[in-house]
């Protein structure tokens, strides 16, 4: 008995040691994958600048269009989507203001558009989790809550700014009230860690985009790829892998785009897998309670504001709202962070990215300091005003409800996520820009009927849900319309049939015969899959615990 007891004790000791070693290895791998994830976002931004940077400079060059607030807004969205960096687009605007090509008041809508465009990155990251419906539903809701906050803030503040110039006047008062002196450059915190790897892959001369925007004809023939790098004393040849490659910017951009997306997807999948394996049992319960539990009554309201400060601080450390929001998106997907907690973290991220811009503006020369700082403060007060509109009163937290509804919708029709991305960040801004180029009469003539129709549909939908008795009998539902106009099911059938048709030509005959059966099974299991969680302990505490044995078995499987 003694020998068997000692053997069990020895096995328990070995098991504990192996468990600790496994946890350490997983943590090291998690940090390594997170580092590669952040670096891939940096390379992705460089790739987008190589592909569309000069086009972004050309867009900014048309000052007559920028004088239209709506056109300025969509140009800010498009340029930020093209260069994948609100800091880059903001710096271009600051350069144009400093050089006298653009007035500060005309630059405010562009800054608002840059605030919208920067949220495209975490939306793309959320689409990488489309393999699991539940993860995708939560991740897409966590990513698009940022989109809805930005769009709703613009809907209220852009007309207000165009009519009264409130942000311009407020920042003008702040600039005139303080004797602001230039300071040092914004501190490089995360870049110190990531630059050795990203600079070994590619280095860009971002001044080329700025010079094109400010009208320098010589900049059009320059390459964005940096060949000569300045050190403290001399100028030497750069050491990145494309320095000797005689390739055009577009070719290098496409190569880096494919490479960075591959690394981004791989790292994200591995991060999610590692988090799912590490966050099990009591560990997951403790982490979830720490992150999502409010302070006791009557101080529960303080929790959200602390989360805003945490988001602002973390974004200041990593110096990128895209990196921070993209990092928390997988955590929302696997259920560690709730949507209600991700929302204030995202709002804090919006503030954090503006503080970095303020520090960078304060490093500007004396002759351009006032204009640079005023633009940065416009960005800051825009986000503060948005938070005051959509956070303090729980009833006004509309972005959470809209994001959750969109997440449920995209979980059912996953192809809708790609349509949303194309519509909100490409097609709609391009359409508005085209109408703006045709003149404000054309823009008003097309936009006003669409806005009135959208408001009518929203009001009718709300009345159908809450007080249908006040509606005429014909408007109590949308069944009088053709089915494709009030249901996504016919469109889903078209898309899935098209995908099945394409897949049938790429598969062998036996797989072709089974495709229809698999499609029917997928349709039958669609509703069931929405009830299955990869990690049951990560479900919210207030959700009903009436999970059947069959559901638990399916989850464990």
TrEMBL record:
<feature type="transmembrane region" description="Helical">
    <location>
        <begin position="372"/>
        <end position="393"/>
    </location>
</feature>
<feature type="transmembrane region" description="Helical">
    <location>
        <begin position="65"/>
        <end position="86"/>
    </location>
</feature>
<dbReference type="GO" id="GO:0005436">
    <property type="term" value="F:sodium:phosphate symporter activity"/>
</dbReference>
<feature type="transmembrane region" description="Helical">
    <location>
        <begin position="347"/>
        <end position="366"/>
    </location>
</feature>
<keyword id="KW-0472">Membrane</keyword>
<protein>
    <recommendedName>
        <fullName>Sodium-dependent phosphate transport protein 2B</fullName>
    </recommendedName>
</protein>
<feature type="transmembrane region" description="Helical">
    <location>
        <begin position="20"/>
        <end position="44"/>
    </location>
</feature>
<keyword id="KW-0325">Glycoprotein</keyword>
<dbReference type="GO" id="GO:0016324">
    <property type="term" value="C:apical plasma membrane"/>
</dbReference>
<dbReference type="GO" id="GO:0044341">
    <property type="term" value="P:sodium-dependent phosphate transport"/>
</dbReference>
<keyword id="KW-0769">Symport</keyword>
<feature type="transmembrane region" description="Helical">
    <location>
        <begin position="148"/>
        <end position="168"/>
    </location>
</feature>
<keyword id="KW-0813">Transport</keyword>
<keyword id="KW-1015">Disulfide bond</keyword>
<feature type="transmembrane region" description="Helical">
    <location>
        <begin position="323"/>
        <end position="340"/>
    </location>
</feature>
<dbReference type="InterPro" id="IPR003841">
    <property type="entry name" value="Na/Pi_transpt"/>
</dbReference>
<dbReference type="Pfam" id="PF02690">
    <property type="entry name" value="Na_Pi_cotrans"/>
</dbReference>
<dbReference type="GO" id="GO:0005903">
    <property type="term" value="C:brush border"/>
</dbReference>
<keyword id="KW-1003">Cell membrane</keyword>
<feature type="transmembrane region" description="Helical">
    <location>
        <begin position="295"/>
        <end position="317"/>
    </location>
</feature>
<keyword id="KW-1133">Transmembrane helix</keyword>
<feature type="region of interest" description="Disordered">
    <location>
        <begin position="534"/>
        <end position="557"/>
    </location>
</feature>
<feature type="transmembrane region" description="Helical">
    <location>
        <begin position="443"/>
        <end position="463"/>
    </location>
</feature>
<keyword id="KW-0915">Sodium</keyword>
<feature type="transmembrane region" description="Helical">
    <location>
        <begin position="106"/>
        <end position="127"/>
    </location>
</feature>
<keyword id="KW-0406">Ion transport</keyword>
<comment type="similarity">
    <text>Belongs to the SLC34A transporter family.</text>
</comment>
<feature type="transmembrane region" description="Helical">
    <location>
        <begin position="413"/>
        <end position="437"/>
    </location>
</feature>
<dbReference type="GO" id="GO:0031982">
    <property type="term" value="C:vesicle"/>
</dbReference>
<feature type="compositionally biased region" description="Basic and acidic residues">
    <location>
        <begin position="539"/>
        <end position="557"/>
    </location>
</feature>
<keyword id="KW-0812">Transmembrane</keyword>
<keyword id="KW-0739">Sodium transport</keyword>
<feature type="transmembrane region" description="Helical">
    <location>
        <begin position="250"/>
        <end position="275"/>
    </location>
</feature>
<comment type="function">
    <text>Involved in actively transporting phosphate into cells via Na(+) cotransport.</text>
</comment>
<dbReference type="GO" id="GO:0030643">
    <property type="term" value="P:intracellular phosphate ion homeostasis"/>
</dbReference>
């Amino acid at each position: 008995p003694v020998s068997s007891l000692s053997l069990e004790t020895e096995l328990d000791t070995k098991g504990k040691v192996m468990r600790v070693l496994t946890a350490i290895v997983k943590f090291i791998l998690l940090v390594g994958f997170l580092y590669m994830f952040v670096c891939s976002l940096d390379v992705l931004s460089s790739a987008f600048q190589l592909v569309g940077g000069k086009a972004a400079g050309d867009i900014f060059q048309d000052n007559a269009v920028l004088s239209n607030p709506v056109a300025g807004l969509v140009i800010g969205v498009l340029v930020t989507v093209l260069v994948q960096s609100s800091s880059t687009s903001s710096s271009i605007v600051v350069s144009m203001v400093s050089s006298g090509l653009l007035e500060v008041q005309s630059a405010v809508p562009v800054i608002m558009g840059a605030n919208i465009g920067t949220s495209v990155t975490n939306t793309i990251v959320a689409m990488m989790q489309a393999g699991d419906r539940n993860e995708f539903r939560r991740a897409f809701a966590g990513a698009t809550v940022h989109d809805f906050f930005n769009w709703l803030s613009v809907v209220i503040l852009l007309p207000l700014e165009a009519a009264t110039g409130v942000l311009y006047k407020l920042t003008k008062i702040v600039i005139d009230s303080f004797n602001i002196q230039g300071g040092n450059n914004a501190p490089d915190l995360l870049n110190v860690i990531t630059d050795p790897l990203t600079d070994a892959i590619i280095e860009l001369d971002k001044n080329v985009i700025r010079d094109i925007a400010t009208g320098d004809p010589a900049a059009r023939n320059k390459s964005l790829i940096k060949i000569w790098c300045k050190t403290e004393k001399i100028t030497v040849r750069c050491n990145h892998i494309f320095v000797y490659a005689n390739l055009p910017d577009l070719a290098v951009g496409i190569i880096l785009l494919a490479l960075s997306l591959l690394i981004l997807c791989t790292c994200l999948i591995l991060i999610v897998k590692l988090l799912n394996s590490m966050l099990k049992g009591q560990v997951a319960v403790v982490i979830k309670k720490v992150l999502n539990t409010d302070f006791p009554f009557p101080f529960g309201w303080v929790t959200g504001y602390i989360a805003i400060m945490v988001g602002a601080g973390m974004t200041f450390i990593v110096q990128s709202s895209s990196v921070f929001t993209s990092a928390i998106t997988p955590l929302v997907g696997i259920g560690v962070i709730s949507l209600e907690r991700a929302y204030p973290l995202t709002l804090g991220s919006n503030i954090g990215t503006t503080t970095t811009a303020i520090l960078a503006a304060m490093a500007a020369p004396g002759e351009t300091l006032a204009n640079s700082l005023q633009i940065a403060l416009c960005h800051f007060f825009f986000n503060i005003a948005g938070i005051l509109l959509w956070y303090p009163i729980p009833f006004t937290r509309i972005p959470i409800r809209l994001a959750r509804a969109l997440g449920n919708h995209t979980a059912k029709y996953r192809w809708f996520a790609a349509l949303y991305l194309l519509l909100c960040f490409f097609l709609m801004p391009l359409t508005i820009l085209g109408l703006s180029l045709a003149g404000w009469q054309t823009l008003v003539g097309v936009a006003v009927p669409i806005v009135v129709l959208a408001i009518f549909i929203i009001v009718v939908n709300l009345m159908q849900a809450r007080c249908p008795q006040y509606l005429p009998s014909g408007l109590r539902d949308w069944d009088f319309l053709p089915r494709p106009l009030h249901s996504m099911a016919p469109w889903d059938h078209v898309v899935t049939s098209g995908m099945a048709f394409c897949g049938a030509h790429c598969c062998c005959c036996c797989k072709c015969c089974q495709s229809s059966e698999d499609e029917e099974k997928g349709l039958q299991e669609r509703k069931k899959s929405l009830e299955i969680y990869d990690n049951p302990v990560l479900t919210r505490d207030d959700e009903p615990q009436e999970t059947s044995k069959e559901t638990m078995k399916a989850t464990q499987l």
